[in-house]
Specification:
By secondary structure, the chain is α+β, with helices and mostly antiparallel strands. The protein has a single domain, classed as Nucleoside Triphosphate Pyrophosphohydrolase (Alpha-Beta Complex). It is built from four helices and 13 strands. The strands form three sheets. Strands 3, 4, 5, 6, 7, 8, 9 and 10 form an eight-stranded mixed sheet that branches. Strands 11-12-13 form a three-stranded antiparallel sheet. The protein has a two-stranded antiparallel ribbon with strand order 1-2. The chain starts with a helix and ends in a 6-residue tail after the last helix.
């Protein structure tokens, strides 16, 4: 058993070192540095400044040695995405030093995860939510799973559970549908995970983030076709309504 623990610890150390070297591509949602300055207001409306959020992709070793990721089921009383599965996280607040600070603060508030237990190793490619929120996934490693004693904020979270990260690279327990928005076709993935009598559906933005995270961690593409769309943010607030309209849910 001691030899197995040592081997597992060495593997996690190697993973931490490798992920710390990961560099995501430039965000398509950051302002272009060479762009000419534009007045804060103009005849065709105010400039659009997207809100930013960060989510924590918190990984740990399961009893079988597999990498698992912590997920939450959002409170059924929330006004948006109620009852849906999500990663812990939320919007950037004044005083947050960076995206990692946001993800860790929100995880502490939502599920009682002590930031001291998490080793932050990487930030990933940025995503755009259906509400035009720029979402930054932050990968963290929970080395001592037993030290984490969940304390749910029942106003925000109904449940906490974990799933194997590698499931987001496999075609098992997955369905999908093709959608189109603003002339771009993309795939919406749905993953089903069963634990005892509980059945969870992981889809939309959360599924997209976890597919990408698993691809980075395992250094391979998924077993299925992943068609993503990269929408350009509107320049002015008046243009937001056309982007927010449509059947796409995430």
């Amino acid at each position: 058993m001691a030899r197995e623990d040592c081997s597992s610890g060495a593997e996690m150390d190697a993973l931490v070192r490798r992920l710390r070297l990961h560099r995501p591509p430039p965000s398509p949602y950051d302002p272009e540095p060479d762009a000419a300055p534009v007045p804060a207001t103009a005849g065709d409306g105010q400039l659009f400044r997207p809100r930013r959020a960060a989510v924590l992709v918190c990984l740990f070793r399961g009893d079988g040695g597999e990498l698992r990721v912590i997920l939450t089921k959002r409170s059924s009383s929330l006004s948006t995405h109620s009852g849906e599965v999500s990663l812990p996280g939320g919007k950037v607040e004044e005083g947050d030093a960076d995206d990692a600070a946001t993800a860790l603060r929100e995880s502490k508030e939502e599920i009682g995860l002590d930031p001291a237990l998490v080793t932050v190793v990487a930030s990933l490619e940025h995503f755009l939510s259906k509400h035009l929120l720029v979402v930054v996934p932050v990968v963290g490693i929970l080395l001592d799973r037993q030290a984490f004693k969940p304390a749910l904020n029942i106003a925000e979270v109904d449940e906490i559970f974990d799933v194997p990260l590698e499931m987001f690279l496999k075609d098992e327990n997955r369905t999908s549908e093709e959608r189109e928005k603003m002339g771009q076709a993309f795939t919406v993935h749905y993953f089903t995970y069963e634990k005892g009598i509980q059945k969870y559906l992981i889809w939309g933005l959360t599924a997209r983030i976890l597919i990408h995270a698993a691809s980075v961690v395992y250094q391979r593409p998924p077993d299925f076709t992943e068609r993503s769309a990269h929408f350009k943010l509107p320049k002015f607030t008046k243009d937001c309504s056309s982007m927010l309209a449509g059947p796409a849910k995430h």
